[in-house]
Design brief:
By secondary structure, this protein is of the alpha+beta class. It contains two helices and five strands. Helices cover 18% and strands 30% of the residues.
Length: 117
């Protein structure tokens, strides 16, 4: 919730108790605050890519969301789901040496397409 992020009605975190949502004066400022909260707290998307041989072929084996302290990973076939605090170990589980290696490819961050109305 917006109030739980520590943002005040002015959009700043002052370390004190968060201001109630009712202090946000109008719908526009409320929407700006919600958009800012989503942008600041959104996890980062990544793919686990398996590379075959010496750049002979590759495939996306899984998709993931990286949060501040952990990551969630789901294989593309849906058979494997994992929550991990070590992305390195998780990605290594998709490797099959010596012919298949795995790596993380970060999704490009997209600018917010929300209008600050």
């Amino acid at each position: 919730m917006l109030a739980e992020t520590g943002h005040t009605a002015a959009g700043e975190s002052d370390g004190s108790a968060p201001a109630p949502l009712t202090l946000l004066r109008d719908r526009e400022s409320y929407e700006r605050q919600v958009n800012r909260m989503v942008d600041e707290l959104a996890p980062r998307m990544f793919a686990v890519v398996q590379d075959y041989g010496d750049q002979e072929d590759s495939r996306i084996a899984a998709w993931g969301l990286a949060f501040e302290d952990y990551a969630e990973i789901v294989s593309v076939d849906g058979d494997l789901r994992m929550s991990t605090d070590s992305m390195e170990r998780a990605v290594n589980s998709f490797s099959q040496p010596p012919d298949v290696t795995a790596r993380v490819v970060w999704g490009a961050p997209e600018p917010s397409d929300r209008a600050d109305t």
